[in-house]
Amino acid sequence: MSAIIELEIGPGEEPGTWNVRVLRSAGADAASASFSLDVDALISRLPFMDSTVLASAVPARRVLTEGETEVQRVGTELFSAVFAGEVEEAYRTSRAVAKERGESLQVRLRLVAPTLAALPWEALFDPEAGVYVCRKEPLIRQIPTTDVMEPLSLEPPLRVLAMVAAPGDLPAIDAGAERVRLEAALRPHIARGRILVEWLDEVTWSNVHEKLLSAPWHVLHFVGHGSYDASSDEGVLAFVGSGGRAEYVDASALADLLDQAEPTPRLVVINSCMSGAASTDELYSGTAAALVNSGINAVAAMQFTISDAAAVAFSQGFYSALAYGRRIDEAVVSGRIAILGLGRDTLEWVTPVLCLRGDDTRLFILPPSPADAEDAEDAAGAEHAAGAAAIPGGPDAPPEPRPKPDPRRVGLIAAVAAGAALLLGIGGTVAVMAALGGGGGADGGSGAADVGAQTLPARIDVAGDTVWTPTGLDCAGGQRLLLTASGEVEVDDLGGIALTPEGAQQQYSTINPQPYASYASLIGRVGDGGMPFVVGSRLAMECPGDGDLQLGVNDPDPAQNVGQFSVQVSDVTVDPTITLDALTPITVDVPADAGDWTSTGITCVPGATYSIWADGVITWGEDQELTAVNPDGTELFAEQDNDATANLPGLEAAQHGSLVGAIGGLPPYVGLGTDTYVDCYAGGGRIGELVLGLNDLDRADNTGGFTVTLSRITGPSG
């Protein structure tokens, strides 16, 4: 059992004040304190945190100091407010006791006000120790209960019911790819008999009900779309309803459905947007907290949008820890550390949230699987034989064979070296010019081979070992097409890793046919000289002109790749229900003196992510008071104090005059700067046009402007 410090945090006597009380600890149990905290200001910064955390999934062309600073600033503000005086003393003492015992320190938070529950406590940063608390210690959002439930004793395997809900009227989810990714992450444990994963193909209410009745399930793993229903003030998940359209299931109804299983699953893992987020009006309104409050022992969910790579890494670290008999709180820390391994810039380890009912964090008592037991016996026998061989006069032990090099490891090392050359831009100028000129085929030619004409709808197989594949489809200017893609390509330069049409979201390069897009993602163009655009798993496009539609893999040297993407192409010119995506990259000029927002022509759909490159200068003032700033808001000369009163609401602390974005020109506003990424979910889940502007309420005397290039990195997702 870990050492524990459990805190209850609730409203104080005066507005803006809060009380914290130590319920138990290895230090002083009776400690308490009061503090002031502008919760509303912190909540207003959550959309920026959401986009910042998701953007960190893509390696930066520079260190993401702005994003890291924002997360650390919020985490430090929360930590310094709560852990002060007697409470800090209790925390430091508890940490010291846990360290002496060789244990971790569980930090449990009982948040008794809805606005507190909406804050990102997983960002807590201890400035004295210089560490994020949740990366060192298990951080638990405790849901109080009088029920006592003992850990469930079971024989291996741990039974996981997994499902990918993909309603036809919501942004597409590649169910096959989600299944492949999760099973690949868990393959060693599945092979050893520690975990069994069974998939539900059609996630309707009746199908889930029947599946829950059919067998015992220990864990429910849901991948899909999540949202928040303001009318019921409750989190919802999107099942598939009649006609394949979304049927929203609120958390309380889902809890009742899960009760149909015997035993009720002890653990629910939800990989969907905002499944761990909460309302500021109702305490147990978010999907995760509501499920736990309704009787589920533990829920691991996501408070921000999460990238595919981070979701897979979390599942691998999380389930591996459970399979080895670790507690649920330890498993979540393991998942965070797995995400951290994706790259030093990632901030997505802050996204998972653990809500727990009751006191016991050991949900399962899981003995070794038969295969593990056999290995233990074999190891004991080998140890015995080795001991016998060491007896003087005994038989000589055979020499240990020299290990053979792992060809995948060798290939990966070579890929890393090659990747370094790509990121450093070696030979980049010539390659970029070639790419912008339309790119070449696998043989270095300038265009795609001729192919027979096809009619719509059509299915096109895009070979992974060819840059451009002709489709035989003529794209007429103004015609609207819907492209949906599935399948996998094993990329040689990544050691044979299988990628979906979204590509490797952790890599990109200036020598790719489309430098702004994820490496090895599905891309397209119209005509041999057309500018490549991002397709990904789904693209609703309007043909930019007349020409033949070509599809390809965003890899400058794909000859050794294996596999293919399968693309369904349909004509949706007369379908008013289809929301068009902008073909990217596009360039937009943002005038310094514009009194309104500047249109990008991009319809922001939740889950889509866009790369932002900005350049230019704006100036204001006269003579000696003249000030000039770049898109980051960095003052180039005549430095003056930041005038927060002239900044946009919610961006008072941001640099005056910096580049900002919004959906439909409505708050929340998101700071962009020179080189960043914007997540369309930062608009709170709204669908609307992405517009650009300045962090300046008085632009009349401004001169100059910014030039902004936008390119879609990922398509709509959960």
TrEMBL record:
Origin superkingdom: Bacteria
Protein name: CHAT domain-containing protein
Basic and acidic residues composition bias: residue spans: 399-408
Region (Disordered): 367-408
Compositional bias segments (type: Low complexity): 382-394
Domain CHAT: 73-344
